[in-house]
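Q: I'm writing up a methods section and want to include an example of the input and output format. Could you take the sequence below and give the corresponding predicted structure tokens, formatted cleanly so I can copy it straight into the document?
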Amino acid sequence: MTVAWLVVGLMVASVRVGLATQDDPRLDGLFDALQSADGPVDAQRIEQEIWAIWSKAGDTDIDRLMESGTRAMAGGQYEEALIAFNAVIEMAPDFAEGWNKRATLYYLMNDYPASIKDIDRTLDLEPRHFGALSGLSMILLDEGRGQEALTVLERAVRIHPFLPNAKARIRALQSKYGEPI
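A: Here is the clean output for your methods example:
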């Protein structure tokens, strides 16, 4: 079944209200644990737990759409992925990861304004979304806004001290653009 037919079937079946897995009570403890992680291996385990919570809407139909969209995006089928992520957002407008996935897709499609708009919504819903912040930093750097990219990346590292490759990226940005304003 194509993503488009899956979307049609699910949207005909019912209209969803927003789900907010970013409000899961386990997240606060996981973010505290991330701050006190013993090192990158411990942090990676905690990060995986955070992603596992963020990635599930708590609704089978929406989770199925997220999986279909993610597979389509990974396979370079961007239009199919866009159909899926648009449906996720329509069905669950308060589900931060739906917005983040579409932001990633827009980034891959080189539609930076749309990606930034979706990142902003992701961060409105989940201000600790280190993945969205890291993505925003990459966009800002691509746009030649290195100082802003550095500031955003440093914000991500304050949330996730062991964010993969972030410290090396920060050092490179600092050497080129100096300390953030």
